[in-house]
Amino acid sequence: MDVDADDIFRDDEDDPDAQHSLLEDESSKEYVVYLVDASPKMFNTTCPAAEQDQNDETHFHIAISCISHTLKSQIINRSYDQVAICFFNTREKKNLQDLNGVYVFNVAEREFLDRPTARLIKEFDHLEESFSKSIGSQHGVVSGTQENSLYNAIWAAQALLRKGSAKTVDKRILLFTNEDDPFGSIKGAVKSDMTRMTLQRAKDAQDLGISIELLPLNHPNEAFNVSQFYADLIGLEGDYLVDFMPSATNRLEDMKDQLRKRMFTKRKVKSLKFTIVNGISIQLNSYALIRPTVPGAITWLDSITNCPLKCERTFICADTGALMEEPITRLHPYKNQNITFSMKQLSEIKRVSIGHLHLLGFKPLSCLRDYYNLKPSTFLYPSDEGTDNSMCIFIALHRKMIQLNRFAVAFGGSSSRPQLVALVAQEEVIQSGSQIEPPGMHMIYLPYSDDIRLVEERYSDSSGMVTKASDDQIKKAADLIKRIDLKGFSVCQLTNPALQRHYAVLQALALAEDDIPEMKDETLPDEEGLARPGVVRALEEFKTSVYGDNYDEENEHNTGEPTEASKKRKANAEFATKECENYDWGELADTGKLKDLTVVELKYYLTANNLPVSGKKEAIITRILTHMGK
Amino acid sequence: MARNKEALLLLLDVGPSMHSVLPEIEKVCSLLVQKKLIYNKYDEVGIVLFGTEDTDNELTSEVGGYQHVVVLKDIKVVDGDIVEALQQLPRGKNDGDFLDAVIVAMDMLIKKFGETNKGKKRMCLITNAQYPIKESYKGTKEEQVTTIAKQMTVHGMRMESIILRGKLSQDANKGIMDENDRLLNIFSKETSTRLLYVDNPISLFGALRTRNITPVTVFRGDIEFSPKLKIKVMVYKKTSEEKFPSLKKYSDKAPPNDKHATRDVKVDYEYKSSEDPDKVVPPDRRIKGYPYGPQIVPISSAEWEAVKFKPEKGVKLLGFTESNNVLRHHYMKDVYAFLPEPGNTKAMLALSALARAMKEMNKVAILRCVWRRGQSNVIIGVLTPNLSDRENIPDSFYLNVLPFAEDVREFQFPSFTNFPASWLPNELQLEAADNLIKTLDLAPHGQQEVLLPDFTPNPVLERFYRYLELKSKDPDAAVPPLDDTLKKITEPDGDLLLQNRAVIGSFCRSFELKGNPLKKSRRLLGGKRSFSSVDVEGNITAQPANLIENASVKVEKIGDLTPVQDFEALISRRDGPDWVVKAINEMKNKIFDLVEDSHEGDNYPKALECLVVLRKGCILEQEPKQFNDFLRHLCNFCREKKLNSFCDYLASEGLALIPKTEAIDSEVTDDEARSFLVKSESKVV
Q1: ipTM score of the complex?
Q2: Which pTM does this prediction carry?
Q3: Taking CB atoms and an 8 Å limit, are A453 and B239 in contact across chains?
Q4: How many angstroms separate the CA atoms of B462 and B206, rounded?
Q5: Nearest CB to A13 within list B244, B416, B420
Q6: Which residue of A40, A194, A244, B516 has the fewest CB atoms within a 10 Å radius of its CB?
């Protein structure tokens, strides 16, 4: 009897391979070869897009512009990825093995497979015009020849992807073609031979950890038939075969309107132990699912040579002027003394509990007030370092917390700021096949009493009576709310206009484009919508019910008594206006004597003329001169 | 500099009923003064004690009365002396009268400041308010308190009260406490200040604001609902992290005896060209470079200025939406509060109407905010209503910043539903989790919420300031341990665990064992990788848990609840040679126990289950003799103990010995195996 001892009590469902891939981390970098069919068929001007918009786009154009879009976002999103662009069924040849009908497009200062550069993008944008001249199109597999361009293409691509280990790099070939039967023109033994060879070549590539993806381009009349040949090549079976075509079309669309967004590969922030009760703990991984994205880090350059500069830091003793090593002691003034601390002492103060995360108890979700927030939350998911037992515990708590509407309160001993956290269980949300919210727990950092400000209570000392709205006013407000409804609002539907502008400017400058494309600011309110009669009526009714008939008057002039500060400001302005009259500004400006005045004097002019008073003296003078039109 | 300096009088009850909490009060009050020494060193503080044995105040000498009120420290600029005084408060011997203390304090503030320093005169009363105040000479106590409170408002004084209740107070006359509550509430209403009830030492720590930060508006102006409807608001920060103080770098270069040395370190940054490391590039020759792929694109700030995104200042409404469209974990930053413009009743009404309607309809508003002119980005935020239940505080809103599309990282995680069954909890485990969640309740019905963030102080900052004080006296002092009271923030509450140890125990037991690693790494990698980390994880459940009832149960044992699974887990363990033998022996004992403890055969089905699995295990592990001998032994045992019914039960269920055909090592033939129990039965009959 030959039984693997480990298998004895295994459940039927638990297939080791499935489990392995289930929690596997993705590799961090991508090497992609874009393999574009350049046969004359790709240049025919009947294509699916024509059904909707009457553009006569060739399939070749679609493929090229798709790649161009991808490159432009890729250079921002994942600029460490490497790409190669390779055409097959070409007249000219250029590739490592000197194979016929395969042309690898490249620009100077760049290997065939390398990070995308501005130059690559720029020249690729203009490639279509010069394509027929410099590369040329040619029919692929034709009867009577022994050339197999598809085979060559896959081989060339595989050679390009030779560098980098398959463990750390995700290697892909993206194949754009509209020919569903590349060996259709030949028959008999030659055909079966070529088919077999090509499939073997593809399989070899896949065995080396290269995945081959097909982006088929449809003809309006005859749909791309995957099962003809490519299903075998990319290894499609069963249900996947049925779903393949629709999903591939979507993917093509997705590639075209990709957001310029820096992509982050899934990487855990850290591993932490979550102690539930004494003796039971589970291992979790934390992930940063939401973090403010900032434009890439800046580098200082020499403005003449454009060479990067090195920043050097020196420490100088303020008392003696002596250069010194980075000091290891810190001081804090207290009671007229300088109290010194060693770094070790400081870190000891901050060290509160060595454990990672301690469960303290549970509270109803209504206790998690809206103002308990300081920074973006962190996502927790069980680590695959754990056991099925710890997974069980996590899932049991997760399920019950959702069911009972409770969150867990825990103490998180991070070294920088140990604090109380709320763990909110999040159910998996799937919309149209993709995961919108992953299942797990969100760790929300709770403030301490020292972090919460009592602004509402402060308010009460400045005003007298406080009134709350009447039922009628609330009803009118409710009507208004119903009118201005953002249906299906979802958090990540708006892009950051400042960031998109930044990327657009950068792209324009890097590619020496003439004009910066105008970005639509999606964060502006929908003015058309707000001007609809229904909305306007609801607004007016609400206004009348709260403000009465004289809204404009009330809002212009404060109904309340002017505050002390505003009185002071007013007095200041009056004083400045009076003082201002003592100077002959025109003459001072003409004779260049403005710089002889003090800042205080200069500010009289600014205050009297309602200009901003900020800035250095120089800026103030410039502002005065601009205001006088000089 | 001293524009915002405030005068604070601490009114502390030191009567006998307060003695147990005085150590906490000493700590929190001295912390308050220590922070003032750093952040508001021109503030003035005085200390008034009541409930003392002695009497020492100006009023008693001037007009008599006011017994047992001691002015411990007259109002003066904060110094170390006050800190020390607060660290060793005298214990009083009388029951305190807080109203006497309030009047003494008012008198002190009036004498010292008169009409000046308006709004910066503060009193802070800490008492358990268990003892009645003296009857007033004229009118009721309510009238007397109202008069005093009105006087306070006239003089621009404010008084906040922290009342100790629950665990922090002793049993006292409820009538008196209710009366005192009523009276203190008058103060709170008239001077519009906080009246807080705290029932545990942590809250006491958090309730007293140790640092006063004058709120500054982030924005004042309109919320624009449409060009035609604008509501005037003031926006403040509602939360903002109080950071660990940033310490200066210390220079040890100056001679140690130099009294005037600043000990400062200047940090200089120099930019040098990469070709010529000796050449320093002046600031005006530097230009910022932004990465575009492998290249760096130089862009001057003037160029940026010309082309960058420049939004217009203002707060605009995008619309309303269902509150469940915005999830709690989307909140990005610290929180803003939107309050109506002071004195603008219409704005107050408008916000109130909207807030209440939104609350009713479960809606939130989405806003686009640009706080300042020249700000180079916009904020998209969610506005949630904050209804006020107090008559002197208006309804308002909170605003939380939401992420943009670029800020959301779409990582995919495996769905729980796709997991193999062994990873998913069973009914029993779900119930255990259910019970755990329900019993470890930090917000029990009808009681104060435990660890309310509003009342929970930062233990690290407390430790830092305490250490600072220690070091000011002894530069070589060691870092003190975390304060005992505040330690409770960082660890589970022992009392709560003890009360619910039955539930916790059963939670532990239902998740015992079954520690199969998720990663089948050892099989996939041919056992090369060390799986010590996995085993550590598995053993965590095994550590003796002091608070758990069944502390003796180890992972190596077969538990009571799921013996079958436990056995399967044990016998399949491969990290030691002894597990198979151990598992079989454990299981034998378990079966014996089950049969022995059986009452009218109620354990028989379970015992049979165990026997079946033991049989299977013995076949697979090639240990048929173990099982066969055991079964024989068990039957003999049953006959001796007059438990024949068990043998009958086994026979009727068709349990047999392991024959040679099932395990090669067996010496039992098929017939023998099948007839074993039948025979034994007939023998007895």
Answers
A1: 0.72
A2: 0.72
A3: yes
A4: 11
A5: B420
A6: A40
